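Q: what sequence does this backbone want?
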């Protein structure tokens, strides 16, 4: 039973995990062709191009997490697994027009933060990495200490031990020596610290522009191009 939870193929869910959107079309077959097939096609379960875990914690900047999910959805053929902390739900309600249930609906799978048997809690469940966006100092500290008492810190721990991409969009200011030390040490352990520091050279018209640029640069770290922001290409002639 537990084996099934931990080792299932794409689509496996645990009692506390849920799935929202259908698997994207993957076979690319032309169904309008009237000629009957002459060969038997065996369907081999294929994994989407990328499978990314998105965790949202209770640091301010809930919209960063929401826009990350939207960008991954827009890219297509990327399977997203979402974990939200209790305080993420509170900041989503306070800072945005979204309800946490609307945010969950943006992901392919959502996992309860207390569900330590969710597929993402095991290194044997293959993923292409995890982004914690925004990442609170509390979750940073838990990841730094390897203290896996919730699914976010456990999954981040898995990313580090499996040498997978782990991006922490840490958000706090000013930073204490404890914060800086934790960031340095998780970087040494393999994580990428990517604070949502805006690039003003894009001459943003509004906050959305700044967020799109930040999200675009974060997803660059997974080899994904949102094409949703202007890149620096040298001084522009007026
Ligand atoms: C409106 C609001 C904004 C917050 N902003 C931050 C922040 O920017 N950085 C941070 O580390 N914690 C911030 N916190 C505190 C965290 O929510 C708190 O430390 C919480 O325990 C984090 O838990 P989590 O990482 O499990 O979500 C904020 C809390 C609230 C209510």
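A:
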């Amino acid at each position: 039973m537990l084996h099934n939870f931990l080792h299932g193929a794409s689509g496996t869910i645990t009692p506390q995990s849920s799935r929202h959107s259908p698997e994207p079309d993957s076979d690319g077959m032309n169904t309008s062709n009237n000629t009957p097939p002459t060969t038997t096609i065996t369907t081999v379960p294929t994994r989407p191009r990328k499978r990314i875990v998105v965790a949202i914690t209770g640091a301010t900047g809930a919209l960063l997490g929401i826009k990350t999910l939207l960008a991954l959805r827009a890219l297509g053929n990327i399977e997203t697994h979402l974990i939200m902390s209790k305080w993420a739900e509170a900041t989503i309600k306070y800072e945005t027009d979204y309800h946490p249930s609307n945010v969950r609906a943006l992901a392919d799978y959502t996992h309860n933060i207390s569900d330590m048997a969710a597929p993402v809690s095991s290194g044997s469940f293959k993923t292409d990495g995890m982004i914690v966006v925004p990442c609170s100092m509390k979750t940073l500290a838990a990841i730094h200490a390897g203290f896996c008492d919730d699914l976010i810190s456990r999954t981040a721990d898995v990313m580090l031990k499996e040498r997978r991409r782990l991006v922490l969009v840490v958000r706090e200011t000013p930073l204490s020596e404890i914060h800086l030390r934790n960031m340095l040490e998780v970087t040494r352990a393999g994580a990428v610290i990517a604070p949502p520091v805006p690039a003003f050279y894009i001459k943003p018209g509004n906050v959305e522009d700044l967020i799109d640029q930040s999200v675009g640069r974060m997803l660059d770290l997974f080899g994904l191009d949102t094409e949703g922001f202007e890149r620096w290409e040298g001084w522009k002639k007026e």
